[in-house]
Design goal:
Strand content: 25-35%
Strand order of the largest sheet: 1-5-4-3-2
Number of helices: 3
CATH topology: YaeB-like fold
Largest sheet: 5 strands, mixed
Structural class: alpha+beta
């Protein structure tokens, strides 16, 4: 089965929010989160809970847990077996913060605006 291409969303000024988020994590938490990203790369939309969960409107969350720390990386699917990772955070509440979901939607809109109808 062909893998999905994982893309780190890049802001207009060249920042990659998920990459920056991963760099701030502990070694153990970073390793676990990267393993979960690899699972997403291998399984795409077939990856389900507890690793991945749809949040609505085409936004999904990738979940990784080490002890009591829980990371979330939000993402969406794009044309041609692509997964775009938009933003990441440490989850501290039961619900995923609306501000994080809205940020993922804004990043998706910016990404789609830059890509237009291009497939790359």
């Amino acid at each position: 089965m062909q893998k999905f291409e994982v893309i780190f969303y890049e802001t207009a000024d060249g920042k990659k929010p998920v990459k920056e988020f991963l760099d701030k994590l502990s070694v153990k938490m970073k390793a676990k989160t990267i393993r979960t990203i690899v699972m997403l790369q291998n399984n795409g939309p077939a990856l389900r809970e507890p690793c991945s969960k749809p949040l609505g409107d085409g936004i999904f969350e990738l979940r990784a847990k080490v002890a009591t720390n829980i990371t979330r990386v939000l993402y969406f699917f794009f044309i041609g077996r692509k997964v775009v990772l938009t933003n990441g955070f440490i989850k501290k509440t039961q619900e995923t913060p609306v501000t994080e979901i809205e940020l993922a939607k804004r990043y998706r809109a910016e990404y789609l605006g830059r890509k237009g109808n291009k497939r790359d």
